C-alpha cells in the first residue's frame, strides 16, 4: 500500500464511481493536471497495482492477500438488514443472492487468516444471518470476463 498515496486513492475512488471516465474529465473533477492523472495511472499499471486491462486495483496490492467466498443462510425477512450491514464492511467486495442451500454468496478479502476469521465472525453476528461457510480462493484461474459472450459460440438447448 506504500505505493498508493492520497492522490492515487482520490483517482481510484473517482474511477470506482465511473470506470469509463476520460482522463481529462477525471483531472477536471479532481482539480489535477491531466498529465498528473495519466502519469499516476501508467505508474500504477506498470507496477502491477491494477488488474490487467482495467482501472480496478488488485486487493492484494492493498494488503488484502487472502480472498474467500462466504456463503450464508439467512432469515429472509432480514435480507435488507444483512445487505446494509455487509455494504458497510470494506472487505466485502460483492454480494450475490443465490438459489439452493445458501441464500447469499459474499466475496471478501482479508490481510491474513486471522483477519478472515474475524471477518467471518462479524458476518455471522449480522442480524438475520443464521449460518455461514467460508471457502478460500486459492487462485483466480479465469478472471471475470465478457469477451467470450461477444466473440464465441454459446451453447443452446438445440445444439451448438
Description:
This protein is an alpha+beta fold. It folds into two domains: 6-58, Arc Repressor Mutant, subunit A; 65-137, Alpha-Beta Plaits (2-Layer Sandwich), CATH 3.30.70. Helices cover 37% and strands 19% of the residues. It contains six helices and four strands, in the order αααβαββαβα. The chain has a four-stranded antiparallel β-sheet with strand order 2-3-1-4. Helix 2 (23-30) packs across helix 3 (34-46). The longest helix has 13 residues, at 34-46. The radius of gyration is 19 Å and the shape is globular. The N and C termini lie far apart (47 Å). The model has no long low-confidence stretch (mean pLDDT 86).
Detail the topology: elements first, then pairings:
Elements: H1 6-17, H2 23-30, H3 34-46, E1 66-74, H4 79-87, E2 92-97, E3 104-110, H5 113-124, E4 129-137, H6 147-151
Helix pairs in contact: 2-3
Task: Name the CATH superfamily classification of the largest domain.
Answer: Lrp/AsnC effector binding domain/regulation of amino acid metabolism (RAM) domain
State which percent range the strand residues make up.
15-25%
Question: What radius of gyration results from the CA coordinates?
Answer: 19 Å
Can you give the mean pLDDT? 86
In whole angstroms, the N-to-C terminal distance is 47 Å
User: Could you give a short account of the major beta sheet?
Assistant: 4 strands, antiparallel
Number of strands: 4
Global geometry? globular
Helicity level: 25-40%
What's the SSE pattern? HHHEHEEHEH
The total of helices stands at: 6
Q: Could you name the ranges where pLDDT drops below 50 across 5 or more consecutive residues? A: none
Q: What is the CATH first-level class name of the largest domain?
A: Alpha Beta
Q: Which fold name fills CATH's third level, the topology of the largest domain?
A: Alpha-Beta Plaits
Helix-strand makeup class: alpha+beta
Q: Which sequence of strands runs across the widest sheet?
A: 2-3-1-4
CATH architecture of the largest domain: 2-Layer Sandwich
Instruction: Provide the number of structural domains.
Output: 2
